[in-house]
Design brief:
The chain has a domain at 174-210 and 245-401 and 436-444: Dihydrodipicolinate Reductase, domain 2 (2-Layer Sandwich), CATH 3.30.360.10. Helix content is 37%, strand content 21%. Strand 3, helix 2 and strand 4 form a beta-alpha-beta unit. It has an 8-stranded mixed sheet with strand order 15-14-13-9-12-11-10-18. The protein is globular and about 65 Å long. By secondary structure, it is α/β, with parallel strands linked by helices. The longest helix is centred in the last third of the chain and has 20 residues, at 425-444.
Length: 450
């Protein structure tokens, strides 16, 4: 993890700073394409994989200055056409499109960085190929659908000396970094962490089978050449166990990585149970519950709990919660699911100094007066939370940037030599080992020791 001094200088560079101890986030300058880099300093970017996730990444990149797109590769002609059209509409120039990634590297000699946004089972081959071609790589999660594939990315990064940022984007998120560095590490505002849990519930419609769209489907022989049995697998590769880890890859991966990051360690044992309670005919699980045993410095075992499901009737319910004797903080990329709640029985003086110095925000008008009697807070806390539906405290400031934007910016700043990667291949590989153990545990229906 980047040291706090470096993190502070990086935040100042992009327009987020510490002022009187408090975090000022969402400054207008961070969303403007200022001429920070000369044309000769522009990073030449190519993309491999022009599907849905690439669209998310592209939307997060368009306000980052100093980039020039030079090529795009996808086996779907229509996806290529859309990607090239969006870039031309935005930037005024037309990039070359390729169906074969080897041809792109042969024809486009001046590529600095490659965005790998292909299906999971192609991440490792494409990332390794890009680094061997002399390019830095931003690789979407998971690194691979196999542990061996993830190892090959790590080996290629070490051998080539090229940067490889893996898309665990919360490691660059200002909310997450501020909470870890300023509140948990610097001020230990919760005390020693004693409970960790997370959930990610997706609406069942987002986990439904996607009907193959003839407009985007390559010919059957091309699909088979690239590992898809048919057009259904091309549209639903994330539901095919031999191509992807399913929910573990799509959702759990990011939250398990937060567990490891915040706790500063990986679990020594995992036990995961998967079920098919709604989509009963599928190979992949629609619900997975996981227990992760972390050996803590005290010698005790902290058992983290993770739940993920694609069968919810609500949408976007995801957060990670860390509990200590002084309170609980709930983290999420969505502001609505963030909360900081002081433990009942703990008086307001415990966090008064943090509020006065701007490290925490307490809004008396919204949350009511802080009770002065710490032993009277139990009933008051529960009544306040039940009646108002709001936590007592919040993080100071707002961030109005797409979730992936900070992580991509960190990648490009590292290429320029102005930052260190927040999630390099070695850091990500530690989490990948845990994720593949979860898959193994669901398949074997037994605990897996790491």
């Amino acid at each position: 993890m980047t040291d706090p001094a470096h993190s502070k200088s990086r935040r100042a560079f992009v327009g987020k700073s510490l002022l009187g101890g408090g975090l000022i986030m969402g400054a207008p300058s961070i969303l403007s394409a200022e001429a920070r880099d000369s044309p000769s300093d522009a990073i030449r970017v190519a993309v491999v994989g022009c599907g849905l996730q690439w669209g998310v990444l592209y939307d997060a990149m368009v306000n980052l200055p100093g980039l020039r797109f030079v090529g795009a590769c996808d086996i779907s002609e229509n996806r290529l056409r859309i990607t090239r059209g969006r870039i031309r509409s935005r930037y005024g120039y037309l990039i070359n499109g390729y169906a074969d990634v080897e041809e792109m590297f042969a024809q486009e000699a001046a590529i600095d960085a490659v965005i790998v946004a292909t299906p999971d089972f192609w991440h490792a081959p494409h990332a390794v190929m890009a680094m061997e071609a002399g390019c830095h790589v931003y690789c979407e999660t998971m690194m691979s659908n196999t542990l061996e594939g993830a190892q090959s990315i790590l080996a290629a990064a070490e051998k080539s000396g090229k940067l490889c940022q893996v898309g665990y984007q919360r490691r660059s998120n200002p909310y997450y970094r501020y909470t870890l560095e300023q509140l948990l590490q610097r001020h230990s505002f919760l005390g020693d962490i004693m409970r960790v849990e997370a959930q990610w519930f997706r609406h069942k419609w987002s986990f439904m089978d996607r009907n193959p769209n003839p407009r985007f489907n390559p010919d059957e022989d091309i699909l088979k050449q690239y590992g898809f049995k048919n057009s259904f697998e091309f549209a639903n590769w994330h539901l095919v166990p031999r191509l992807s880890a399913g929910l573990t890859s799509q959702l759990s991966s990011h939250q398990i990585d937060v567990f490891n990051w915040y706790l500063g360690r990986t679990p020594q044992k995992v036990y995961a149970a998967g079920t098919r309670g709604y989509y009963v005919e599928r190979e992949s699980f629609d619900t997975i519950n996981t227990l992760l045993d972390y050996l803590m410095p005290s010698g005790g075992i902290l058992q983290a709990v993770h739940r993920v499901s694609g069968t919810s009737v609500l949408s976007g319910q995801y957060f990670e919660a860390f509990t200590g004797p002084k309170g609980i903080t709930t983290m999420s990329e969505r502001r609505i699911f963030q909360s900081i709640f002081r433990a009942c029985g703990i008086g307001p003086d415990a966090w008064d100094d943090l509020v006065k110095r701007g490290f925490l925000k307490y809004d008396a008008e919204a949350f009511g007066e802080v009770p002065s009697d710490p032993y009277a807070t139990d009933a008051i806390c529960h009544e306040s939370f039940r009646r108002r539906g709001n936590p007592h405290y919040q993080l100071p400031g707002e961030v109005n940037r797409p979730p992936h934007m900070d992580h991509l910016e960190n990648f490009f700043e590292a290429i320029r030599g102005k930052a260190e990667l927040n999630c390099d291949a070695q850091t990500a590989f530690a989490t990948e080992r845990v994720l593949h153990a979860i898959t193994q545990s669901t398949q074997q229906e037994t605990a897996v020791v790491l």
